[in-house]
Design a protein that fits this description.
Largest sheet: 8 strands, mixed
Shape: flat
Radius of gyration: 38 Å
Number of helices: 29
Distance between the termini: 27 Å
């Protein structure tokens, strides 16, 4: 049998080149998507981690080791500060950095610095409050390599420098020179331990080559002086200038003669591009190792027994880990869903191929073909197409996504290829394990499910119910999140919950599918004409294997609907957060009263539908204990309309109107829950920012309101406020205002905040944008595989339908009747798939929404989300794929009828051909 296999494969490929090409295309596309996913995820996660480290800035992410000067004779102390000794120690420190943490040697440095800032007596240095300026003496390594001369020359040490050296040379940054009025040749006198002060002559002014790099930014004082405030109770505390004097590293021993305690230091900057998100736990462990573990022991052995390591890199990694733990499970849900859909479509393709070749394989078994031999032939003919296609898909994925780990991509592509190769042989083994010439009919309406199938479906139902309950109870992160572990089998079951709901719904609909056909058969038989009855009879005679497309369609449509709802939920969460931050589509706000006439000009701006004037007072104090509150004075009618249109704390306008009985009555107020709990329903006094008082009484409570943010606010009728407080300083606009025209109208008289601009700032990390792209691809893949499943099913039945039309045309069937016949035959399964997919997608979102919070993927970690951002159904995501399935089904049926009518019928009418 093995010797015949190559010839068999050649014959099969020549006989059915179209089927081979379709299989190759399916495998290549699926392998490309499967291989690209882990690499794309790596790219997004690595970019997010790199951005988190970059945003944290070098003062937090650089590992800085400090050690005092050793207690020893003066000669040995001076030797310990020389660059030769510090350089050797620095090399050992770099070697002690544990993997996966990688140091950036180009931005790492060592040197000596004063532990205490030194006041200098030179009066020509500016003294803003009369206090003398202070300097910090620093002798860093690599100064010449990391800076460019702006003026003068680089400092150098002539001869041997000791603690008693009377003068040294130094350089300063251009910013320091400008702020402290330092010029080339200036001499700064630094207090010494004994004797005359150390004279530091400035020989050069330098500019950093990479001012944002770790070399200059770990200690920003090296490049930028600071105006330091002295702690004081005075309204304007005294200040003094603090700047750095950069000595050559060979002059470091001179710091021993100053009153500032010299410290040796080694700074190790992490290589941001080498950070890998999949090594996050290892990175946190490496930093902890250096701060208080074996790594610290190695650093101390290389430098000094009392060396201390200081860094906030571990806090940065933990913060990124929290963001990742909120997003990665959501991405896993999309990945598991799309992967299951792809697997179902691959299995469906193999099942349809086995069903199409049922008579051929039955004949081979009847003529003596063994099961292993038959499976080997089918495996060979499938592998010769699928393996090159899988390799092609893998190559395309590697080219499309050049970053990321290779192993997972190869494994994913290999898994796709293996499933594609095994689908046809395994299905053939199951169907043809017994030799038979004539098998029983397996019509959908006549075949009853076996007991084994019932047990398998019930088992799957229990698993799906468990997954749904786990997701609703614990969320997508599962119960192991608190324990610090994730990714176990329980988590993976939770990730499969949406697609399991789709599979269960598909199995249920497959069981229910015969019922409406049986109900419609009898009424259709009474109708005039044979088209309706014949189409239902044809739909009912669909074989059980041909119901596989229904399973694939429902799974794909459920995945697409779920992914589309996630994307719509993310967009909705950002819109709501932006609305809460701005209060309307646009907000014009001034620190003082707005100029006269600005409201009318803004009202006439293109796109503005409604304008609400508000008087805000952020200095108001309520009650006898003068609790700080934010107060807004509004016109009740226009403000109630604004609150109703934005959905932010709508209320009846009559509740807020000023009483008509007299000005002595308390003003009705809308309050936040915090203020309402504090003051209740009794009147209380509010001191306004202009010094006047007003008495208010809370009549309604709302969690939020358009004019004010926070948890402590009051809204009153501004007719009851003083003239000064009631002046308009805020405008809230609705509609679709033209941003450019509005900005020109407002000018510099006030600040302008647009909801659209606020929303654009909410994509905070590449991890968030990457997760959105993953869901977009998941939606597209789900819709694409649904279409592909439909096409495979219709192409499988195309020869049989063509033969049917040809035979019926010999009996007088017109072309119009032929089109109606094919459309009506295809509609029952398509209608069931479309309606079932939309209903299943809606039910999936409804079932799983309590366990899915989109805050992590939708909003920056620094944004406080008011209320949960739970998953909600998106009507477009439900209706669009379902409608596309129906339209495509009708279009294919009409196209097939038209094409069959143009062709001759000789081939279809030949007796003996298997259809």
């Amino acid at each position: 049998m093995n010797a015949v296999t190559p010839a068999w494969v050649r014959v099969r490929l020549r006989t059915a080149p179209g089927a081979a090409a379709a299989l190759a295309l399916l495998v290549a596309l699926t392998a490309c998507l499967a291989a690209a996913f882990p690499r794309a995820l790596d790219r997004y996660e690595n970019a997010g981690l790199a951005q988190a480290v970059d945003r944290a800035t070098p003062p937090r992410t650089t590992l800085t080791m400090y050690a005092p000067v050793p207690e020893a004779p003066d000669r040995q102390r001076e030797q310990a500060l020389l660059p030769s000794a510090l350089g050797r120690q620095h090399t050992k420190v770099l070697g002690a950095i544990p993997r996966p943490l990688v140091a950036d040697p180009g931005q790492s440095l060592y040197g000596v610095v004063n532990g205490t800032d030194l006041p200098v007596p030179d009066r020509w240095i500016p003294r803003p409050s009369g206090l003398p300026a202070k300097v910090r003496l620093v002798a860093p390594s690599g100064l010449a390599e990391h800076s460019s001369l702006h003026a003068g020359r680089m400092p150098r040490a002539t001869g041997r420098v000791t603690a008693s050296t009377p003068d040294v040379e130094a350089a300063v940054s251009a910013a320091t020179a400008k702020s402290l009025h330092i010029e080339v040749g200036s001499v700064i006198h630094v207090p010494a331990v004994s004797g005359p002060p150390l004279a530091v002559r400035v020989t050069g002014i330098v500019t950093p080559r990479e001012p944002d790099g770790a070399y200059w930014s770990t200690a920003p004082l090296l490049r930028t002086p600071a105006l330091v405030q002295v702690p004081s109770d005075e309204p304007e505390p005294p200040m003094y200038w603090l700047g750095a004097l950069l000595l050559p590293s060979e002059a470091a021993p001179a710091l021993l003669g100053t009153v500032g305690t010299p410290l040796r230091y080694w700074q190790v900057a992490p290589e941001t591009r080498a950070l890998q998100a999949h090594d996050l736990e290892g990175l946190k462990s490496a930093v902890a190792n250096l701060k208080s573990g074996p790594g610290l022991v190695q650093v101390r052995a290389a430098t000094d027994p009392v060396t201390q390591v200081d860094t906030d890199l571990d806090d940065v990694l933990i913060s990124y880990g929290r963001l990742s733990s909120g997003i990665t499970p959501l991405v896993a849900v999309a990945a598991f869903g799309s992967g299951t859909v792809a697997a179902v479509v691959l299995l469906m393709a193999g099942g349809l191929a086995a069903d199409r070749r049922r008579f051929e394989l039955t004949l081979l078994r009847a003529r003596g073909a063994s099961l292993p031999g038959l499976a080997g032939r089918l495996l060979a003919e499938t592998a010769v197409v699928a393996v090159p296609a899988g390799a092609l898909g893998l190559g395309a994925a590697l080219l499309a996504v050049p970053e990321g780990r290779l192993g997972y991509a190869v494994l994913a592509a290999a898994a796709v290829t293996a499933v594609a190769c095994a689908a046809l042989p395994v299905r053939a083994l199951v169907v043809h394990r017994a030799v038979s010439v004539h098998g029983p009919r397996e019509d959908t309406v006549s075949v009853r499910p076996s007991q084994r199938r019932t047990v398998a479906e019930l088992t799957l139902l229990v698993i799906a119910a468990g997954a749904v309950e786990a997701l609703r109870r614990y969320g997508v992160s599962g119960p192991s999140e608190d324990a610090g572990a994730s990714g176990g089998s329980g988590d993976q079951l939770v990730f499969l919950a949406p697609v399991l709901v789709g599979v269960i719904a598909a199995l249920l609909l497959v069981r229910l599918y015969p019922l409406p056909l049986r109900w419609l058969m009898r009424p259709a038989g009474r109708l005039r004409g044979a088209v309706g009855h014949l189409s239902l009879a044809r739909a009912g005679r669909t074989s059980v294997p041909a119901m596989l497309p229904l399973l694939a369609l429902l799974t794909a449509l459920t995945t697409a609907a779920f992914g589309g709802s996630v994307l719509a939920g993310v967009a909705g969460a950002r819109d709501q957060a932006a609305l809460l931050a701005v209060g309307a589509e646009a907000r014009v706000e001034g620190t003082e009263a707005l100029p006269a006439g600005l409201s009318d000009r803004v009202r006439r701006t293109r796109g503005v539908r409604e304008l609400t004037e508000v008087s805000t007072d952020y200095q108001a104090k309520a009650g006898t204990d003068l609790t700080r509150v934010s107060l807004a004075g509004v016109d009740p009618a226009s403000y109630a309309s604004l609150a109703r249109s934005t959905g932010l704390g709508a209320f009846p306008e009559r509740q807020l109107r000023r009483p008509a009985d007299g000005p002595r009555d308390p003003l009705p107020a809308l309050a936040s829950p915090t203020i309402a709990e504090m003051f209740g329903k009794q009147p209380f006094s509010v001191m306004l920012g202009d010094g006047t008082d007003v008495t208010v009484r809370i009549v309604t409570v709302r969690d939020r309101t358009p004019a004010l943010v926070g948890t402590s606010f009051l809204v009153v009728d501004r007719a009851g406020l003083s003239r000064e407080t009631a002046r308009t300083n805020t405008l809230l606009l609705t509609g679709h205002p033209d941003a450019g025209a509005l900005r020109r109208t407002v000018g510099k008289s006030a600040s302008l905040h647009l909801r659209s601009e606020e929303r654009a700032q909410y994509v905070d990390s590449p991890l968030q944008s990457g997760a959105e792209r993953v869901y977009a691809v998941a939606v597209a893949a789900g819709a694409g595989y649904a279409v592909l499943a439909l096409l495979l099913a219709l192409l499988r039945a195309a020869p049989e339908r063509a033969a049917l039309l040809a035979r019926l045309r010999t009996m007088g069937l017109t072309r119009a009747q032929g089109r109606r016949l094919l459309v009506l035959e295809s509609l029952p399964q398509a209608l069931l798939a479309a309606a079932g997919g939309a209903l299943t997608g809606w039910a999936t979102v409804l079932l799983l929404s309590p366990g899915i919070d989109l805050t992590a993927i939708a909003l920056p970690s620094t944004t406080v989300a008011t209320g949960g951002n739970a998953l909600r159904t998106d009507p477009l995501s439900l209706a669009l794929p379902a409608t596309a399935v129906l339209l495509l089904t009708v279009a294919i049926a009409v196209s097939q009828a038209w094409w069959t009518g143009r062709k001759g019928s000789v081939r279809e009418l030949r007796a003996g051909d298997a259809r």
